[in-house]
Design goal:
- Helices cover 23% and strands 26% of the residues.
- By secondary structure, the protein is of the alpha+beta class.
- The chain folds into three domains: 69 residues; 119 residues, Immunoglobulin-like; 157 residues, no CATH class.
- The strands form four sheets. Strands 11, 12, 14, 15, 17, 18 and 19 form a seven-stranded antiparallel sheet that branches. Strands 2, 4, 5, 7, 8 and 9 form a six-stranded mixed sheet that branches.
- A hairpin with a 7-residue loop joins strand 7 and strand 8.
């Protein structure tokens, strides 16, 4: 059917609008054929059939899968570690936390550093405080603390132990020994690789108030904790007191990553002289039964000497020598302490010869007490003997000798561990000793 572009007339004589162009075409409109793009669908670019690819078989996918597994496993372990650390740190805030839990918190690094410092600085249980100190020492060893925190650990953990009495008799005239040991007690030993060791710090000290010039100057630096020993003369202190000794210490690191030096708190010690207290007050009351027990516990024992080894020689005056002299043996425990001057008697020689002193403290307990060892013995070597014996001995040879112990209250007051000294004298049995010329 052709169309000349004019409008068609209806039977009723009205004109109609021309038909659309698509309706005027002859036959149905052809649909274009869709072909797959090269490289997609079932054929390749050259028309050959193509197999379907799976993403799991790609080498790149395997690499991404391994990375995902690594991140997942590592992140899970990190998350679990973080949760354990939070529980451990939260446990430190509980009042009933145990020392083992406190020390175990060091395994989580700085997570619990502030809580450990809080426990360490708060007065309370000594066991908890020591556990916190050991944990901080482990963090310090792992370089988990800054320099200021390291100083705080040393300053707050610094401890001094004085070994002396607080009160002495005014009538005392012999030298009184004083001893002070100081350091940080919870630091590791020499073979401890988990904590900062005592040998990682160096110490220096001076003592003020003893009226001794040698100890008022700073001592040389020493590793592993400090100790100072000195003596005073009661006559150097004309007043009764109280008198005050002050230990001034310094500490510095030795071979650690952070190098610093610190002035430690001054640690005083006070003592006085009592005009009413008599030196004899340290002596216990005599008792026949205890006298026999002490006499049986003290004896001279001949020395067993190997002829191939060098002989032990002890001076006996100016011209003579004791060769391998016997030893003074004390069997413990004793019913009382010993603070006795020792002298020896030689057969055929008049008088006694001074031979040092013997101090045995911590006695006065029954043998049945827990931890007592009735078979334990203390052995004392005879020191060089002085006295006017040059003309009393004519020739070398073997002579008998014995030791005599006399109570000395001055010696008892000099040792702070002595509480009650046996007041009597004790004489040992006679034993043979070899005397040779010098």
């Amino acid at each position: 059917m052709k169309h000349d572009g004019r409008a068609a007339a209806d039977p009723d004589g009205r004109d109609r609008m021309p038909l659309p162009l698509w309706a005027q075409a002859e036959g149905p409109r052809p649909v274009p054929e869709r072909r797959p793009a090269p490289g997609r669908g079932g054929q390749a670019a050259g028309g050959e059939p193509r197999t379907r690819r799976h993403w799991m078989r790609e080498p790149r996918s395997a690499v991404w899968l391994v990375l995902a597994l690594i991140l997942g496993i590592g992140g899970g372990r990190r998350l679990r570690w973080s949760l354990r650390a939070r529980r451990a740190v939260a446990r430190l805030a509980d009042p009933d936390v145990t020392p083992d839990e406190i020390e175990a918190a060091a395994a989580f690094g700085r997570e619990g550093a502030w809580e450990l410092l809080r426990i360490f600085s708060t007065p309370g249980s000594d066991t908890s405080r020591d556990a916190a100190g050991r944990a901080l020492a482990r963090l310090w060893k792992g370089n988990q603390l800054v320099a200021e925190e390291e100083k705080a650990v040393v300053r707050r953990g610094f401890a001094v132990e004085w070994k002396a009495r607080r009160r002495y008799p005014r009538a005392l005239h012999a030298e009184i020994p004083f001893r002070a040991s100081y350091g940080v007690p919870f630091l590791g030993a020499e073979d401890d690789d988990e904590r900062i060791r005592a040998a990682d710090l160096e110490w220096s000290h001076r003592v003020v108030g003893a009226r001794r010039a040698t100890i008022e100057n700073a001592s040389p630096w020493t590793r592993g904790g400090g100790e100072v020993a000195f003596s005073i003369l009661p006559d150097d202190f004309p007043t009764n007191g109280p008198h005050r000794l002050v230990l001034q210490s310094r500490v510095r690191t030795a071979g650690l990553p952070d190098a610093w030096e610190l002035d430690l708190p001054h640690m005083p010690f006070t003592f006085d002289f009592d005009p009413v207290l008599r030196p004899e007050a340290i002596l216990t009351l005599p008792d026949a039964a205890r006298d026999a027990e002490i006499a049986g516990a003290i004896r001279l024992r001949p020395t067993e000497h190997d002829e191939s080894a060098p002989a032990r020689l002890v001076s006996l005056g100016n011209d003579w020598v004791l060769r391998n002299p016997p030893r003074l043996v004390v069997a413990t425990p004793l019913p009382c302490d010993l603070a006795h001057a020792v002298s020896i008697e030689l057969e055929g020689v008049e008088g006694r010869l001074a031979a040092g002193r013997v101090i045995v403290s911590g006695q006065g307990f029954p043998r049945e007490r827990p931890g007592a060892q009735p078979g334990s013995e203390l052995s004392f070597e005879l020191p060089p003997v002085s006295g006017p014996i040059s003309g009393a001995i004519e020739r070398p040879g073997t002579r008998r000798l014995r030791a005599i112990l006399d109570a000395d209250p001055q010696l008892g007051w000099a040792d702070p561990d002595v509480r009650a000294v046996w007041p009597g004298s004790v004489a040992t049995d006679w034993v043979e000793a070899e005397i040779i010329r010098r």
